[in-house]
Amino acid sequence: MSEDTKTLHCLSCNISENEIPLVNLNYSGKPAYICSRCLPLLIHHPQELIGKLKGAENIPPAEHQD
Q1: How far is CA 13 from CA 4, 16, 28, 45, 46, in A?
Q2: pTM of the full structure
């Protein structure tokens, strides 16, 4: 049996899993992938993912404690 493998890409910068590690995430019941370089965007500036991740406008940025 042969498996068709689809190369995964970062939802933000489109880099492939062959070039950098990707983190698997689920949001609104859908899978998505983000690379280790773009993960801080998801945490601190999710508004920068609007148009790339459906519903990103509803994700609040992480609160920072001094």
Answers
A1: 24, 9, 21, 14, 14
A2: 0.82
**Burial class, 63, CB count within 10 angstroms (exposed 0-12 / middle 13-18 / buried 19+):** exposed
Place of tokens 């042969």: 2
5-47 pLDDT, tens digit each: 899 999 999 999 999 999 999 999 999 999 999 999 999 999 9
For residue 65, give every residue at least 6 positions away whose Cβ sits within 8 Å of its Cβ, in sequence order, or none. Answer: none
> How far apart (Å, rounded) are the C-alpha atoms in residues 9 and 35?
8
**Sequence ranges of the domains in the chain:** 22-58
